[in-house]
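WP5 quarterly update. Target: Methylamine utilization protein MauD. Source organism: Paracoccus chinensis. Length: 199 aa.
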Amino acid sequence: MTNLLIVSNVLLWVAFLGVTVVMLGLMRQVGLLHERSSPMGAMITDHGPDIGDKAPELDLKDFAGRAVKIGGPAADGRQTLLMFTAPTCPVCDKLFPIIKSIARAEKISVVMISDGAPEEHRRFLDSHDLGEIRYVVSAEAGMAFQVGKIPYGVLLDPQGVIRAKGLTNTREHLESLLEADKTGFASLQQYIARRKKAA
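C-alpha cells (predicted):
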C-alpha cells in the first residue's frame, strides 16, 4: 500500500512538471505571436509627396463655396488632417464620426477631400453633420497627393509639412497618423521595425 502511494506521488509530480513545461512553452509562443501581430498603423500606399516634404499648395473651394487653402502655413496654427474619401465609400461613412471625435480631442483641423457626382455629395452631406470639418470636392487634390486608394489620411503640421500619411480603414489607423507624428517616426511600421532592431 505504501509503495502504491509513493508511486502515485511520483507520477503526480512528473505530470505536474510536464504540464509546467508545456505551459511555459505555450506562454513563450503566445508572446512571439503577440509581437509578430502587433497593431499596424496606416499603410503608405502612394508615391506622392513624401513625409517631411512640403505639401502641395492648393487654393480650393469647399462644397458651400468658401475658400479652402491646402498646404503652406495654417492660418489657425493647428495641424491639418486631410481625409481623402468618397460619398459612396462604406468604410469612409463609418469613419466619419471617428474623424470628428479625433479632430475635437486632438484640436486639429480636418479637410475631407472627395470626388464624384454632385448629387452623391449632397446626399452624404444631408445625412452627416460636418461641424467644423470642411468638405472639398476636388480631383486636383487627389492627383497632387497621388492618392490611389481611400480612405486615405495625410497629416500636415502648422507649417504645411507632411508629418504622416497612409490608408486609414480603422480608428487605429487614424490614431497611428497622430502617434507617428508624436514619436518622430514616419510611420508606425518604421517605429516597430526600429524597436525590433534595438531589441
